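[Primary structure, fold]
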Amino acid sequence: MDELAYALITPYSIQKSRTGGIIGRLIAHARLTLRAVRMMVFSEEFVDAYMECVCPAGTEPPIEQAWRRYLDENLRGKPTRPVPRCMLLLFSGPDAVRHLKDDVIGSFTELPVGDNVRGTYGDFIRDGDGAIRYFEPAVITGPDRPTNLQHLDLLAKFADTDGGILTGRCKYPPGSNVQTCLVMLKPDNFARPSRRPGNIIDVFSRTGLRIVATSLFHMTVAQAEEFYGPLKAVFREKLKDNVTAEVHGRLKDAFAFPFTMVDAERTAEFLAERNAIAEFNRIVEYMTGVNPDEISDPELKKTASRTRCLAMIYEGPDAISKIRSTLGSTDPTKAEPATVRSDYGRDLMRNGAHASDSPFSADRERKIVGLWEEQGPSELKEIIESHLRGQGR
């Protein structure tokens, strides 16, 4: 039976823009399935309860004290500090708890090693007398199976009240043009375990913007058709010249009479709509893994999906222009060096990521992917509760 394990990226790691590097390690090196992602800002009630069960029985007292002190100082909101945003990731698979903890995240060590997440991004420093002087775990996870179940139980209780869409929670300089921008890492980034999703997030960290919402998103055919609907008209006009050239090239010598470019343009007018629909359907199939032509019942389109995307909301001053500049041109071959699409794009469709191009688009797209406002229990909560029921809890 598969186990469910979690990784909680700490506020310090997020504030220092280490999020992408850590996610890259977690996805690439964990032989597990990523099930859900959610931003969290924990309540006093959660932190109080978490402190009581963070360590398993028999933990070395200095370690347990360090953990309690760390949670108390770093997970609680304080007026003089940035909002303590955490990112919670759920993974499932065989031996998930031990594998994630021991093989990927790692234990604390004073040795200068970089073969796991904590070795690279965490710190653990003792004084000469053995007292712990500095402690930064970078990522928090269940230390063993029984304790992991306790943590999951607690996370399920607070998943909806303490997490989700955190827009408007961060502070910015007076007069800032604060915007939100939806960024979506496309399905080919998740075709197999790799560092690509984390590396792309790391590129976006150059903007200095804050991630205020995340969702591991299974785009349905209905959502894709709504999301990319505006492209139909664009395809109809922009691809007309391509259709004209294709028609003329194929038919110019096919008849006993001259087939001119005027004839080709007239034919292209007739074919433009069908060509636009065909191109549009290619994008829908790429984003969902489902050919919309194969679904005749509109109701089935509301659930049809075979792919995963990672949707994120970035917030901050002039967020849209900063994200679009870092994303790069739609065509990866023309994208500026060191942009997302220059480094990770393959073609016009498989170009790494999507980002909103205006405040209007950001609002429209957020509503489609479900990152506009909270709507019922989160998927993360449902996944944890289903697992706990299977464990008889």
Notes: The mean pLDDT is 92. The CA atoms of residues 220 and 303 lie 6 Å apart.
